[in-house]
Amino acid sequence: MGAGSSTEAEREPLLAPSPAETNSPPGNSRVYGKRWLVLTMFSLLGLLQGMVWNFWGPIQNSAARAYGFTKSDIAILVLWGPVGFVPWLLFMWLMDKKGLRASLLLSAFFMLLGAIFRSIPLAEQPLRRWFIHGGQFLNGLAGPTTMSAGPYLSTTWFAPDQRATATAVASLFCYLGGAVSFVVGPLVVPAPNDTQASTTTAAAVSDSSIRDRIQLVMYAELAAVAVLFGAILLYFPSRPPMPPSVAAASQRLSYRSSICRLLSNLRFLMIALAYAVPTGVIAGWAGVLDMVLTPAKVSQMDAGWIGFWSTVGGCVFGVAMARFADSIRGMLKLILVLILAGASLSSTWFTLTCLSRLTHLPSTAAILYTSCILVGIFVNSSVPIFFELLIETVYPVPEGITCGVVTFLGNLVTGLLLFFLTFYCTELSWLNWCVTGSCLFSLVLILFFRETYDRLYLDVFVSV
């Protein structure tokens, strides 16, 4: 397709139905009730993966007391999530050749192994820290599947009028897991300033209590991952007996041809950058939100609630927008323009509010909370809409490969941001400006992007 519009030949299904099949479309496709069980299991795994990834950021002050972690250590613990995307080509190849079951089982196994590593109660603190870092890395290896396979699952199991909604649910549960950790961590693990350590003995008891609470959360996460791994091992089919749509039944490009097509498609690269830059920056920013809000005199508990509501709001708003896109097709670009305009305005508001000493803008707790939450709502809700538009743009490239490439780019942006944060962690106003600039950059790219709906054309016109 390149940078030009798609032709009639490109819109034809690669695997054409026989004349007998054309006259009886209801017999060629079918949706199954168990698709909701498949979606639930996949989404729960993404939820747990996001919870483990974002566990340390919301309790950075407690982790510093319990294990001696510095701000650079916290940034590295969050960085293991993007680093886990290094072998993303392997997971995409496995999904393309063996189906979603094989890729998801491997990801769940890495999560289980990582949860075991993190939970080993070693007495030697240096060795214990290495095991924690190793567990975070193994959990990060599950990211390429849990964060990018949602559109593949929705196309494989869901009808065209439910695809965007299923994509939103499957894709956003990873973010919802990060939101849950914003609340679970500060609620279960006490902050250092919650205790009065007047003596050395009292301080030691306080540190021991914090470590016990952290250990309790890690044991609970280990149990949840183990149960879900067993459920996926016992039952998680790669695909339904019959496809739910013409697009799901059509033959796709090969793995190598898909990569070449994506890298040579200027329209894809354009929208891929529009997705990767803001979502990657926001992911890194949210992972250290407690550090960002500390100069504004926001407590660890309050920072956790801000992160929670911004992510939950983004998930709810994203599902609502996806449902709207399912009911009114062909409006993905307009939806993205509105979402990114809101993200640009709210991020600018938040950044200027944090610089109240220079801008003289009112800086109250309500304003900080509102602007910060709006940033998360707008950016997180754009993820499923971006995925659907990306897939429509490059069809017949398989959904898993398309979304695998863009999520890798997003995590590459997150990794670079957190890498710089390990060196420049004393003053974080530059991080807020990165959020604002990324939203404006994405908005400009989407405004100049020309949309096409090749997969939708196939389902609507060829299936009639």
TrEMBL record:
Residues 1-27 are annotated as: Disordered. It is found in: Lysosome membrane. InterPro entries: FLVCR1-2_SLC49-like, MFS, MFS_trans_sf, SLC49A4-like. It holds the Pfam family MFS_1. It is a multi-pass membrane protein. Gene3D superfamilies: MFS general substrate transporter like domains. It catalyses: pyridoxine(out) + n H(+)(out) = pyridoxine(in) + n H(+)(in). GO terms for cellular component: lysosomal membrane. Signal peptide: none annotated. SUPFAM superfamilies: MFS general substrate transporter. Its main location: membrane. It comes from the Eukaryota. Keywords: Glycoprotein, Lysosome, Membrane, Transmembrane, Transmembrane helix, Transport. One of its GO terms (molecular function) is transmembrane transporter activity. The chain crosses the membrane at residues 36-56, 76-95, 102-121, 141-159, 166-189, 216-236, 266-286, 306-325, 332-352, 364-391, 403-424, 430-449. Mediates H(+)-dependent pyridoxine transport. Belongs to the major facilitator superfamily. This is Solute carrier family 49 member 4. The lineage of its organism: Eukaryota, Metazoa, Chordata, Craniata, Vertebrata.
